[in-house]
Amino acid sequence: MCRVRKILALVMAGALVTGLFGCGASEQATASQTETIETEASEEASEEADNITSESANIPAYEYPGPELFYSVLYKYINDEFAANYDSADVAIPIVNIIYQDESNKEDIKVYGDFWYMNYDLEGDTLECVSGGSYPGCIHIKTTDEGYSVTSMDIVEDGSNYLDSAKEIFGEHFDDFEKVSSDDEAREKVRAQIISNYVFANDLNIKAYQDQGWDPVTLPEQNIDSFYSILD
Question: Is the pTM of this model over 0.85?
Fold first, then answer.
């Protein structure tokens, strides 16, 4: 209503100026009137765009919801390390499938696994996957005065070097890696549970996740208390 009144006032002002000063002044008034209206429209469109942006990003960044600092560092590393490979999205939620964990050396704890970085945009009550990738390998972690710190990661190579590099990195755990990496159904269960626990921890109204070209997958009940193990 306010916007309509402003425009009508401008039109009336333009008519008055025309009566007083003639055609030349009319052209100037009309140009001024048009510029004012266009400015209002531009500001209004900008506000709408800002609102859309804030709404689309109105979900928190992923944080590991379990009690163990060790796994918090691990999950955060995956998101931080691979984010630069993709355009930003509303939230990135990793998939962590740990195959074997070697804690014999506290200065070089080795975590072998099938690790994924996944980006999602929120559409209604569904997280739609917009990008992501697989990064299987071994993450090296050391103990520090503050807790834990990732020192490096050995990543299985793509293409023709995939098999050889996977065997080199996983060694005696290669067969287990093959089983885990080829089991899509089991990985999707882990993925759904990690998303569900994120949703519960942040009290979000999200019911499902969806890959492009696939039906939405309803999230299971959260199980934060039992899903994450306590490190010895």
Answer: no
